[in-house]
């Protein structure tokens, strides 16, 4: 028996008792498969088949209903048709069971009625405090209990797999049977009526049997919960997610599949990154990574040696190391000398170390042991390439790798045995060791990259422990503006309103005031200081210039009074019929041509349905949509550091940093604005869009000017 | 016996006789392996072992030397140590053999002396008209003869593999032994002292046994020959190349490996594209593609159906189709109705067609046959996804696919059997059929993409048949300028020289004349028309403004005279000591602010050591190096069409096309300049660099102005 896991779902991995509703002696029925799997898995708890027609199932006395079971029932597995499931749930509630795994399909994934049934199930579960896995799932497999209808049992190991698709789970089980990979848990989550991926990640992070968590997901149920919880798991063990529905067509297919509303792919990437999740891009990728995290020694550096018995694969591997951003060991001269002294004259002792085609296992050993004399930060490990040449003894090389690994337990050793038929024996030898084996160099190196990336995840402060520094500003003033906009039932703020918000937020923008009469125009223009720009204020007028609603370079109070009348008249005549002409805004004119440097950037916020607000930074100006030089980050726990990282992802950043002898731009002030915007949308979730384009950035110390800003609220 | 192949290297695939220099009865020796392979391969020609110490080898009478063989010898395989190879070559020359395969290593790949030996071999071969494969290679395997020291014989099939790395070849042979893939030829080309990849591509294109040619290359020996010859092969059959040494470190490793000088990767991509070669990016990629080209029906369209028994993999596949730029079939309404009528209610009949988890083989058949009722351009074929669920019979599904394929021979059917242990039987069933099988959706779809891409290659006019339209211009004038520059032993042209060249070439640039006295300055300025710009002309002065060498807005002849003196004095004082002040150039001032639209682009030419001149197009201006919005194309057989395609690869193109109500830019004239530049460098290969930045492009019909141009020659 395993120790009790301190997690709300801990009981799921090893319940004291299991009832199977729909248990059957009839081969081919789901209720048969489930019973058979429970028995075959050597489950040591109490088993209660529920079947109104049979007195016994699989030799266990059967009961007509869950409520008839004379003992406590901790977990119930449901295999009866969809129309009976609500009834079963009511019985489970009456019996006070802790959890229900609903294998049955036919709910929200097929129809409106199904969705309705699923809602009833959710309501009963909530009321009775029952945790529900499924419906529409394959079940749950743990080291102690196989409560699924899968036809294969995984070999025991330390990989947990959670899948939104039952079929993906069967495919993985089938694949695992051929490749010496062991699993701790398999959970198929189906429609996620209650238990979702976050609950399971949290559970499996607490499971001592699990070292690595793989997920196949089509959607994430609750972005906020994900961001709150998942980093707790990723700071303990690697969590790797293959998220499908990344394309438009794929998202549509996913929506019809489990009724999932897929979020935008960029935001998923960001959310996974921030939570410390490693994202797999293909199925191969997922399994390649599983292998390295399951087996390999954690690398203590990012520079590796390549030991090869052939030049060609060495070059392929060298390309892959560089293309994956990993380093190749530059051997210390004394070490390279030792390699030269101990290897044949034809060998290449520079990295990649080519020990040439006739290399026996001992020569691999020599090369590896000399390489590992170098410091671990110079040589964190080795990729050992083996091609089947006439003198090669792949099985002996594999055994040698295990020996060397034992002697150098801190160095990561990854084997790449290229070929097929000669490489099955090495595969068996290396299974279960700390030396993972690959068939080709590229997937091996891709996986090494992720192993190194996970080190960074472990070293970083996890998201759930991060604190967003509070920026204080005049929140009341902002609230007041939003209130007045909402009172008028508008969604888009007028320029003087955005100006008021930015002023309150501590973001510089040209002084802007609203005038409602010629006299007021003259007064307010004088307050701002000349010259000023004057623009019509009207929610109905989008293109102000087109109807004579903008006048630049107004130079005196007297002129301002005249321009007021001119604008109001022009807009009344040329604007949309019945447009509400609120007045004229008076704006400070920024003389940006006088600045030492002047770059146009774009800052923005938009709101993702799943992951909340995202901060955008990029190259601005009228062509911003065409240059597409932008980067995004979630506003959740946003910091100046994240802002700076966003800048570095763009090409405009190089220009802001100062090229061709130009001064550096005022990057600090841009970062300041970005953090203030994030603070604003964290405080005011009703903001759906915010757009500053262009934000003119001047030379260091000279600030910026937000000349054109739009804010939209819900 | 195969028919004689009409190719200079035809004899290599089935020589009438083979002598093995270094043939041996000693197990473990290379000369033993080669003899053994020749015998095992059932070679039907004459075999002559050459061994001065044994009277017979493998039962064949042995000879002391090639010259001692009493009959004609067509091919000689050499396995003796490097120091004996030159002697052997001399004997081969005396014997007048046609070809020599030198397996022996120890030439240019190891040392200067080796390189010297290799040069001697080349000289003898050239003199005696002997074709040489190798040295430093594994040998040659054909359907009729295994003249290699590889330890495995490939299954007979129709894939030819050419490898610059012998070990890569052994790995592929080993891999092939496990996965039901057959090969026609295997050629290891080693150091390519004579026979290179282009010779072999040309030979294999003529080989009736070969349907597809795979290559592993670290370098290309002769770019010009490649561009001239390879498209002949690619218009006959697919040629797929994995080119390593793509990274900086990889290129360095390749250089130390076979002494290959790797060219820039971009130019390789372009050269492969232009020649109709498909480029594999990883080893997996190479083999995945080999499978589809070897087996599958050529797709007659680019829209495919997905038939799946599980939603999850269907979504993964949908993503992959979209991400690979392929189309998914939108079924004709009548077809979709038929799918609905014939599939269970829970099935998804939209593409992907999810025939759900309990699908027996017959349901796959139903879905496929209905899908194939749609027109072939709507549904060119199907990806069939099989996950191992309880009712699934993978082997039966595989057999059914073969049946359906027979009935619909024009539709491409690709199987994706997800899993491991349950999928070995289907793999055996589908081997050798026209239904290739993959384990995961992504590589299957990636391969389908290449199958579709090859259709476009076949449909296009192959490079060797393309004719570059001749643009006539005043070539003599250009020659005269270059001659005078060369006479002065300069490499960088002065502005009035580039202006003369562009004028001769028919490219507009601001009128520029050289003045060597104040008086001449006044006269030439008047000829050009005012205002003019005046700039110092001096090969030693790079930054003209910095030493007072530039004056703008010169408005009269009188002023021009004064400015001449002013510039000459300023540069004499502030320029580099001893700078040669040739004179002052007088340039027309372009009033580009008066133009309706004005975009800065960059055009350039640079010369790749391997592939010759490349034309560059991109976003110009002072930040061109930072925006990196550029595209390249080989100048070889350059056309306006290629120029337009180059434009479309950049972001600036959208802006040139006209956005935000702006007029379209004068794209035609940009294309005209690009073709003229290509013509120029084709005629004057001594040009190493040409840079126009910015080229100001105005609105359609208003042309452009090449305000700043640099030309460098060898």
From TrEMBL, chains A, B:
Gene3D superfamilies: ATP-grasp fold, A domain, ATP-grasp fold, B domain, NAD(P)-binding Rossmann-like Domain, Succinyl-CoA synthetase domains. The keyword Nucleotide-binding applies. Coiled coil: none annotated. The keyword ATP-binding applies. NCBIfam families: AcCoA-syn-alpha. It comes from the Eukaryota. Keywords: ATP-binding, Ligase, Nucleotide-binding. This is ATP-grasp domain-containing protein. GO terms for molecular function: acetate-CoA ligase (ADP-forming) activity; ATP binding; metal ion binding. Residues 499-535 form the ATP-grasp domain. Signal peptide: none annotated. SUPFAM superfamilies: Glutathione synthetase ATP-binding domain-like, NAD(P)-binding Rossmann-fold domains, Succinyl-CoA synthetase domains. It comes from Kipferlia bialata. PROSITE patterns: ATP_GRASP.
């Amino acid at each position: 028996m395993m120790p009790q896991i301190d997690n709300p779902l801990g009981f799921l991995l090893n319940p004291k008792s299991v009832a199977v509703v729909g248990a059957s002696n009839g081969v081919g029925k789901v209720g048969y498969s489930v019973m058979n799997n429970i028995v075959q898995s050597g489950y040591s708890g109490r088993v209660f088949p529920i079947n109104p027609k049979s007195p016994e199932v699989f030799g266990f006395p059967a009961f007509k209903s869950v409520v008839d079971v004379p003992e406590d029932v901790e977990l119930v597995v449901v295999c009866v048709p969809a129309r009976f499931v609500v009834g079963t749930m009511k019985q489970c509630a009456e019996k006070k069971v802790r959890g229900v795994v609903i294998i049955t399909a036919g709910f929200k994934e097929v129809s409106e009625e199904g969705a309705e049934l699923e809602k009833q199930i959710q309501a009963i579960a909530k009321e009775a405090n029952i945790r529900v896995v499924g419906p529409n799932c394959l079940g749950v497999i743990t080291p102690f209990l196989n409560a699924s209808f899968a036809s294969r049992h995984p070999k025991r190991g330390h990989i947990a797999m959670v899948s939104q698709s039952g079929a993906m789970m069967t495919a993985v089980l089938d694949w695992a049977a051929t490749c010496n990979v062991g699993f701790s848990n398999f959970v198929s989550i189906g429609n996620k009526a209650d238990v979702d991926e976050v609950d399971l990640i949290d559970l499996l992070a607490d499971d001592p049997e699990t070292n690595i968590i793989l997920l196949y997901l089509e959607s994430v149920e609750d972005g906020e919960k994900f961001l709150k919880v998942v980093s707790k798991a990723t700071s303990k063990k690697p969590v790797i997610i293959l998220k499908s529905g990344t394309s438009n067509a794929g998202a549509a297919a996913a929506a019809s599949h489990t009724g999932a509303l897929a979020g935008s792919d960029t935001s998923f990437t960001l959310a996974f990154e921030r939570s410390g999740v490693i994202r797999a891009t293909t199925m191969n990728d997922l399994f390649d990574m599983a292998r390295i995290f399951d087996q390999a020694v954690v690398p203590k550096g990012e520079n590796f040696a390549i030991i090869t018995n052939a030049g060609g694969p060495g070059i392929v591997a060298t390309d892959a190391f560089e293309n994956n951003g990993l380093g190749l060991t530059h051997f210390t001269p004394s070490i390279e000398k030792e390699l030269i002294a101990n290897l044949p004259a034809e060998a290449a002792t520079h990295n990649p170390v080519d020990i040439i085609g006739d290399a026996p296992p001992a020569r691999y050993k020599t090369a590896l042991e000399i390489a590992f004399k170098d410091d671990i930060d110079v040589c964190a490990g080795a990729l050992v390439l083996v091609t089947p040449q006439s003198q090669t003894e792949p099985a002996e090389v594999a055994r040698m790798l295990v020996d060397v690994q034992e002697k150098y337990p801190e160095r990561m050793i990854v084997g790449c045995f290229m070929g097929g038929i000669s490489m099955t024996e090495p595969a068996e030898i290396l299974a279960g060791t700390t030396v993972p084996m690959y068939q080709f160099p590229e997937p091996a190196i891709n996986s090494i990259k992720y192993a190194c990336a996970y080190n960074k995840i472990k070293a970083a402060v996890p998201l759930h422990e991060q604190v967003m520094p509070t920026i204080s500003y005049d929140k009341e003033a902002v609230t007041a503006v939003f209130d007045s906009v909402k009172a008028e039932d508008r969604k888009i703020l007028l320029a003087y309103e955005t100006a008021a918000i930015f002023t309150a937020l501590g973001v510089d923008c040209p002084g802007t005031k609203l005038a409602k009469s010629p006299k007021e125009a003259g007064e307010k223009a004088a307050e701002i200081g000349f010259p000023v720009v004057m623009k019509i204020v009207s929610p109905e007028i989008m293109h102000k210039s087109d109807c004579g609603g903008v006048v630049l370079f107004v130079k005196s109070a007297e002129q301002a009074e005249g321009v007021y009348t001119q604008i109001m008249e022009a807009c009344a005549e040329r604007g949309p019929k019945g447009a509400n002409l609120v007045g004229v805004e008076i704006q400070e004119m920024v003389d940006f041509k006088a600045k030492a440097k002047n770059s146009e950037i774009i800052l923005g916020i938009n709101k993702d349905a799943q992951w909340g607000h995202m901060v955008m930074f990029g190259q601005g100006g009228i062509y911003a949509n065409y240059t597409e030089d932008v980067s995004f980050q979630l506003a959740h726990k946003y910091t100046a550091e994240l802002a700076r990282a966003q800048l570095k992802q763009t090409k405009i950043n190089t220009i802001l940093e100062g090229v061709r002898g130009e001064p550096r731009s005022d990057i600090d002030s841009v970062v300041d604005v970005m953090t203030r915007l994030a603070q604003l949308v964290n405080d005011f979730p009703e903001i759906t869009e915010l757009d500053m384009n262009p934000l003119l950035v001047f030379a260091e110390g000279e600030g910026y000017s937000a000349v054109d800003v739009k804010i939209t609220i819900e």
